[in-house]
Design brief:
alpha+beta; Cytochrome p450; 5-stranded mixed sheet; 3-stranded antiparallel sheet; globular; binds protoporphyrin IX containing FE
Length: 473
């Protein structure tokens, strides 16, 4: 990269320091350098290595400040959060998720968060323990035949089917393996993957044509969006009708949304709002967990010592029986392995905020209306906070190690009031899945190739993770 550094220590006319960063070209800023590096992950990683903990980057017309120090993360997400919102960047995400919990702001967001919180508390998610165990069990049974045939499985695909199954059942009481809906759910999954990719591509290019212009990409995006609306909208309409006929029911997350009433006004959500929350939870609630599990199987296969510790733990604690939620505290290594996979490959590898007013971070001036790029990926590998950060080592998450570390050195679920509402759900699901799968199978990589991460909205493996299943005694 042909970098020309901004002069470190340069000052603004207000006497404040300007953050260093790679010099860009007129109009496009640093966009060509991102293209040249091949991905945003490598561009940001190199910018952090070269320019330090606060880097000024320009993506087209947008001034970005990449931050990586835990103190700065706390500043933006917690201590000075009044100065930050999710920003105009959310307009693009709204094309995907509507005005749901992920994208909304202010009092509206606060009300929705209050309404939706109860089933997601540590206690609330225990109601999903049984369906989670049931679905994992069915996956294990379905794998018997490929295991006997020594067949190769695309583990990313398998994990996606599992986590989509879990969210479909716990939220909508839909069995996506059932013939009636399997095709629709799979199609909706593919449509969503395309939409996510489209939006990531748009974010990286900084310029895009409005969706009403019928380019082939826009047409495909609009068709994908219609397909998802058909599938999830149909489920919501049907359920609302059932509530009208039979009165409130209480079986799943969708019922919770339909029954929720604002404690001040007594108002329920209208159909549009319920739909936006359903699509938000459906998609935010499975892709990320699937990526975590996929990376974890890849890492375990590459680290036989860690894999052995995991196998010893599940064998000792569970013997041959299926776990219940009561077993999870006795399976700490399985949980630490999940946390370590999310350290190295955080599914939400970056997310952004926008400043309302001028601020100062790490001694550098942050002008109003700047975009702050927070990167769990960079902070989780920050050499000041992690020893040998590239190495997979679940023991880092032993309580005494965690206690020694900066609290904000690890934030795969974000932090502050906008922290992931599904964190307890995801951790419970991943913990159960790792324990149950490791109990029955050893997953071996088909080849020992190194798989690089690729940014596709979430951080995915750039190549399919192909594995064989070995039945454990
Ligand atoms: C490993 C799994 C997951 C990861 C790594 C993850 C990551 C994140 C992150 C980083 C945020 C905050 C983004 C920001 O502050 O801008 C977030 C928000 C959110 N996540 Fe997750 N998530 C996961 C699983 C889930 C699950 C299982 C659900 C639902 C069942 C979910 C639903 C949401 C929602 C609705 C928000 C927006 C919350 C708000 O703003 O109030 N996520 N997630």
């Amino acid at each position: 990269m042909n970098h020309v550094t901004n002069v470190r220590g340069a000052t603004t006319n207000l006497g404040r320091q300007v953050a260093p960063g790679p010099r860009g070209i007129p109009l496009l800023g640093n966009v060509p350098q991102v293209r040249q590096k091949g991905s945003l992950v490598s561009f940001y990683s190199q910018a952090h290595r070269e320019y330090g903990d606060v880097v000024h980057v320009r993506m087209g017309p947008i001034d970005q400040y990449l931050i990586a120090q835990p103190d700065h993360v706390r500043h933006v997400l917690v201590t000075n959060r009044q100065n930050y919102w999710k920003g105009v960047a959310m307009e693009r995400v709204k094309l995907l998720l509507g005005n749901g919990l992920f994208t909304s702001e202010g009092e509206f967001w606060q009300r929705q968060r209050r309404l939706m919180q109860p089933p997601f508390t540590p206690r609330g998610v225990t109601q999903f323990g049984e369906p989670m165990v049931g679905l994992i069990q069915r996956t294990l049974d379905r794998w018997e035949a490929p295991a006997r045939a020594n067949a190769v499985l695309d583990i990313g695909q398998e994990m996606m089917t599992l986590t989509m199954g879990v969210i479909a059942e716990t939220m909508l009481s839909i069995d996506i393996t059932h013939d009636d809906v399997a095709g629709n759910a799979a199609e909706a999954g593919r449509a969503f993957a395309y939409m996510l990719e489209f939006i990531s591509r748009q974010s990286a290019t900084a310029f895009s044509l409005p969706l009403w212009i019928p380019t082939p990409a826009n047409r495909r995006f609009n068709a994908a969006s219609a397909l998802i609306q058909d599938f999830l909208g149909g489920v919501v309409r049907e359920r609302r009708e059932r509530h009208r006929r039979a009165g409130p029911q209480q079986h799943d997350l969708l019922d919770t949304l339909l029954n929720a009433r604002d404690d001040q006004t007594g108002q329920a959500m209208d159909d549009r709002q319920v739909y936006d929350e359903v699509i938000t939870i459906f998609f935010a609630g499975h892709e990320t967990t699937a990526q975590t599990l996929t990376w974890l199987w890849y890492l375990l296969a590459k680290h036989p010592d860690a894999e052995r510790r995991l196998h010893d733990e599940v064998d000792r604690v569970l013997g041959g029986r299926a776990p219940t939620l009561a077993d999870l505290p006795n399976l700490p290594y399985a949980r630490m392995a999940v946390e370590e996979a999310m350290r190295l490959y955080p599914p939400a590898w970056i997310f952004v905020r926008e400043s309302y007013n001028d601020d100062e971070i790490g001694g550098y001036h942050i002008p109003a209306k700047s975009m702050i790029v927070l990167s769990p990926y960079l902070t989780h590998r920050h050499p000041d906070h992690w020893e040998r950060p590239e190495i997979f080592q679940p023991e880092r998450f032993a309580p005494e190690q965690v206690a020694k570390r900066h609290h904000y050195a690890y934030f795969p679920f974000g932090s502050g009031p906008r922290t992931c509402i599904g964190n307890n759900f995801a951790l419970q699901e991943a913990h159960l899945a790792v324990a149950m799968i490791a109990q029955r199978y050893r997953l071996r990589l088909q080849t020992d190739q190194e798989i690089q991460p690729k940014m596709m909205g979430t951080l995915r493996p750039a190549a399919p993770v192909l594995m064989r299943l070995e039945r454990r005694p």
